[in-house]
Amino acid sequence: MPSLAVTLGPLRAKNPVFSASGTFGYGEEMEPFLNPGVYGGIIGKSISIKPRGGNPTPRVVETASGMLNSIGLQNPGFDAFLRDYLPRMRGYGTLLVVNLVGDTVDEYVEMARRLEEVEGGEAVDALELNISCPNCPQGGMEFGIDPKATRLLVERVRAASRKPILAKLTPNVTDIVSIARAAEDGGADVLTLTNTFVGMAIDWRKRQAILPARTGGLSGPAIKPLSLRLVWQVARGCNIPVMGIGGIMNADDVMDFLVAGARAVQIGTVQFVRPRAVLEILEDLHRFLEEEGLDSIEQVVGTIK
Ligand code: SIN
Question: 0.85 exceeded by the pTM?
Answer without folding.
Answer: yes
